[in-house]
Amino acid sequence: MNNSALIKLLYFCSKLTLGFSILFSLAIIPCLILGSFGKEVNLKVNIETGNVFWEKYIEIDESKNKLYSQNIFLETSDTVAKRENNIDKINLKSLNNYQISLNEGILSQYDYLHNLPQKHRILILASSLVTLFLLILIFYYLMIFMQHIHHGNYFELKTMACLKNMAYILIFIWLDNYTSKFILDKFKNVVNETSETYINVVIQFPNISLLICGLMLWLVAHIFSHGIILKEENKLTI
Amino acid sequence: MIVINLDVILAKRKMSLTELSNKVGITMANLSILKKGKARAIRFSTLEAICEALECQPSDILEYKKDL
Fold first, then answer.
1. Reduced to 3 states, what is the DSSP secondary structure of residue A143?
2. What ipTM describes this predicted complex?
3. Nearest-by-CA chain B residue for A229
4. Residue B46 Cα, gap to closest chain A Cα (Å)
5. Which of A36, A120, B6, B66 could form a disulfide with A116 if both were Cys (CB 3.0 to 4.6 A apart)?
6. What is the pTM of this model?
7. Which pLDDT score, from 0 to 100, does residue A232 have?
8. What does the DSSP assignment read for A186-226?
């Protein structure tokens, strides 16, 4: 397959993707709205990223009967499938002094949208709508970008502007996801007012792959834009 | 701003743009860009060739005017 045929195919794929993203959004938005108003819909929500909760109980002060625990979050997605309903903590197995368990946060990680509190539902709806809109916008710019490439306008400022717009949207999607996750975390009541006191050492970094993608894309577009300006200047130097 | 007085000199010398293009070895398109003042920069070699062909000084072709 030669290059022009590949570009033609990619252009067609970008148009197809835009169409699918619009169709997908049109299908999901009514479900999201119904779910946010408390109607029963088959929409499961991942409030957080998949984490395994490693927990080590260290009994420090026996007289006061206080238990201290050290928690380290590690990424996983398989363990979440072992969830059981209405149990605050499930100990899966013991490994020396360590216990692999799922905490309350993970148990509530996957839940039906209509079962969530209203605040969460509204936030998830708003965030999802913004993300869907941005998704359509990013595929639109991808289509325009591929159109320019298809027409042979490789080194044009308008082509690079599409790339820059895509980069801004990627960064915005990351910001949107991160802020909504941050707000959801704030809503959660993680402190247990019991006789047990927990010291939580949480190692949990936000997923920055989207941010890095966006920044790299912006950088590439910026470098190319500068190159295009230089090319224009060279062209107009007699 | 820098104003190009190429058309004035050409008229004084009674020379067409095509003639100048042939003498200097610059394409008509590039000379047209220069004449219309759309050029961003001019090489010394080009200026030298034009001055030689038109028997004039660079100051006859280039003029500085204050922006209003």
1. helix
2. 0.77
3. B40
4. 7
5. A120
6. 0.64
7. 87
8. HHS-----SS---B---------HHHHHHHHHHHHHHHHHH
Checking if the pLDDT of A195 tops 50, the result is no
What residues contact residue A17 under an 8 Å CB cut-off, 6+ apart? A139, A142, A143
Report which of A192, A187, A165, A203 is spatially closest to residue A54, judged by C-alpha positions.
Answer: A203
pLDDT, tens digit, for every residue of A83-124? 433 344 444 444 444 444 444 444 445 666 677 778 777 877
**Residue-level pLDDT at B44:** 93
Q: Which long-range contacts (CB under 8 A, 24 or more apart) does A147-156 make?
A: A147/A11, A149/A7, A149/A10, A149/A11, A150/A7, A150/A8, A150/A11, A155/A224, A155/A227, A155/A228, A155/A231, A156/A228
Residue A113 DSSP one-character state: G
Beta bridge partners of A69: A57
Chain A residues lying within 8 Å of B41, measured CB to CB? 233, 236-238
A95 reaches B (C-beta below 8 A)? no
Smallest CA–CA distance, residue A234 to chain B, in Å, is: 8
Structure confidence by residue, pLDDT tens digits, A163-179 = 999 999 999 988 887 88
The reply to whether residue B43 touches residue A238, judged by beta carbons under 8 angstroms, is yes
CA-wise closest residue to A198 among A13, A68, A73, A44? A68
> What number is the average pLDDT over the span B36-40?
87
Q: List residues bridging with A56 in a β-sheet.
A: A70, A98
Predicted pLDDT of residue B36: 87
Nearest to A200 by CA among A64, A27, A73: A73
Is residue A59 within 8 Å of A67, Cβ to Cβ? yes
pLDDT digits (tens, 9 = 90+) for A177-193: 788 777 776 665 554 44
- Which residue in B has a C-alpha nearest to residue A233's C-alpha? B40
